[in-house]
Write a structure and sequence with these properties.
It contains 19 helices and 14 strands. The chain has 531 residues and is α+β, with helices and mostly antiparallel strands. Helix 1 packs across helix 2, helix 5 packs across helix 6 and helix 10 packs antiparallel against helix 12.
Length: 531
């Protein structure tokens, strides 16, 4: 090659100069990522065809199909169903519960008065939340939470319309309408309006979301192809919230969500197909005993006629030869069947190799990748804890980082907003008296500050977990209230009240539980050396 270049240089010196300049230019360009992930010359990257795009091309154009496939996987693929339900159960569980925590210092209240008001608020909120508060009167507030969070995972978002109307045995009028995300769409007369994106109305000057266009019925349930829409502003009169849009964007300027399963849809579908194929192969191999090979020259349907097949249960299955010239024998397979041979027929044993010995290792490897993408460790994904205590605990701790993050997001963007609107109605109806409420946003925030407690993490070894909690409390690293929630989702103050009541009953009845040694054992639990 070098000799050829020398010959060309002698013939055309300008060509050599151009080649030298091109090499210098490539040397300048091939720096940083151009030698690695952005390389266009490496053989490993030549087949990588990718094209950049904005939110419109990358998300909006593909969103409908992603949602359809996500729902289909949830309805038919066990792994997809399992991971969605696992996240819902651990994040929301039976519902996030209100723990009022008003900022009494800002409001100028003493601690006792604040506790009395918090108790009243929680009592009134239970009256509303434990009633049927959805639009159709089927679900209470905690069941609505489950539906809303599941919709967010499956569709990437959820819309909740706040309506007000009277219902029996409930003094509060606030009702929640959970809207299928498919119903939020751009009206036909707004398709050329750039301020309307996928049914979301933006302010033309600030790009602030001002409202949503909601179809009166689901677009996939209509035969005409077009639906009438209703415009729902985010805020109504007196800044009262009309609609809540729950979305967790993954790109700047993104206005519509994508399902949780989007990055692993292909892997989940292929895994589901592979599982079905292996299951069917195993079923068929369990039915096949032998293949019957017939000599066509010696055996004909006319010579044999009808043949009987006898199963181990002495059931008779009729089979006969085809009418065509192949002479093939039709046999209806049954588990463990026995086929009688005729003259000129030979039995050829069949070994299909099922169940496949490599099925479990391969599926495990794929599930580990899916779990990593969805932040659900493999052990929790398949509900199989076969590793050591430390490894299993590490997997749970890693998963609970994600669960807590999603719970905080859900509480901030849904339950807390609903609680604020409910508290507004409670004050307006005079069921709760909160001075200065509604006069300043700072006071409103102080009155509506709350904690939302959900299911606890649980313990692999309850004794070790309890000792660790006691040690953290002793060293001032945590509080009894927090540890009560972390261990079993309990309320420390409520626990104290119940314990005091139990002690009183025991004392009145003259019952003594335990002995003096129990106190010593409790002290030992707090010793670091015991841990």
């Amino acid at each position: 090659m070098k000799l050829l270049e020398k010959a060309i240089v002698q013939i055309s010196p300008s060509w050599a100069l151009k080649r030298q300049l091109a090499r210098q230019h490539l040397a300048v360009l091939n720096t940083g990522y151009s030698n690695h992930g952005a390389s266009t010359t490496k053989s490993s990257m030549l087949g990588w065809l990718s094209r950049g795009g904005g939110v419109k091309n990358d998300i909006y154009k593909n969103r409908d199909r992603l949602v359809e496939r996500s729902r289909d996987l949830y309805m038919g693929a066990p792994t997809a169903t399992g991971v969605i339900k696992t996240i819902v159960s651990n994040t929301v569980g039976s519902g996030l519960r209100l723990k009022s925590a008003i900022d009494y210092e800002l409001l100028g209240l003493d601690e006792n008065t604040a506790e009395e008001i918090e108790t009243q608020i929680e009592r009134e909120f239970r009256l509303w939340s434990e009633s049927k508060i959805d639009q159709n009167g089927l679900l209470d507030f905690y069941q609505v939470q489950d539906l809303v969070f599941l919709t967010v995972l499956l569709s990437g978002e959820c819309f909740i319309k706040l309506n007000y109307f009277e219902t029996p045995r409930n003094p509060y009028h606030l009702k929640l309408l959970v809207i299928e995300p498919d119903r939020v769409l751009t009206p036909n007369d707004k398709t050329n309006d750039k301020s309307v994106i996928c049914g979301v109305q933006l302010d033309k000057k600030t790009n602030w979301i001002t409202g949503y266009y909601v179809a009166k019925e689901h677009p996939l349930d209509t035969y005409s192809g077009s639906t009438d829409t209703v415009y729902v502003p985010v805020y109504g009169k007196s800044n009262q919230r009309n609609i809540i849009h729950l979305i967790n964007p993954e790109r700047p300027e993104q206005l519509r969500g994508v399902p949780l399963l989007s990055p692993v849809i292909e892997a989940l579908k292929q895994l589901d197909r592979y599982t079905d194929a292996e299951l069917m192969a195993a079923v068929i191999s369990g039915m096949y005993a032998v293949f019957i090979e017939s000599d066509k020259d010696n055996v004909t349907p006319a010579d044999i006629g009808e043949q009987s097949i006898v199963s181990p249960e002495e059931s008779v299955v009729s089979s006969s030869y085809d009418d065509d010239d192949t002479g093939a024998l039709d046999i209806e397979m049954t588990p463990g069947m026995i086929v009688g041979l005729r003259p000129g027929e030979r039995a050829n044993p069949n070994n299909p190799g099922r169940p496949n010995a490599q099925f479990d290792p391969f599926v495990t490897a794929i599930l580990r990748q899916i779990g990593a993408a969805l932040e659900v460790p493999y052990e929790l994904l398949v509900k199989h804890f076969s590793a050591s205590y430390s490894a299993s605990r590490a997997a749970l701790l890693e998963a609970w980082k994600m669960f807590r993050k999603r719970r905080d997001w859900f509480a901030s963007n849904f339950t807390q907003l609903i609680y604020q609107e409910w508290l507004r109605e409670a004050v307006l109806r005079g069921r709760i008296e909160l001075y200065n409420f509604g006069t300043d946003p700072l006071y409103d925030k102080a009155w509506s500050t709350a904690q939302w407690n959900g299911p606890s993490q649980g313990q692999i070894d309850p004794l070790k977990e309890a000792k660790a909690s006691a040690l953290k409390i002793q060293e001032g690293l945590s509080t009894r209230s927090r540890e009560s929630v972390e261990l079993n989702g309990g309320d420390f103050e409520q626990n104290v009240r119940i314990l005091a009541k139990e002690q009183k009953i025991l004392k009145e009845k003259g019952v003594t539980l335990g002995n003096a040694k129990n106190d010593e054992s409790e002290e030992k639990v707090l010793e670091p050396s015991e841990e």
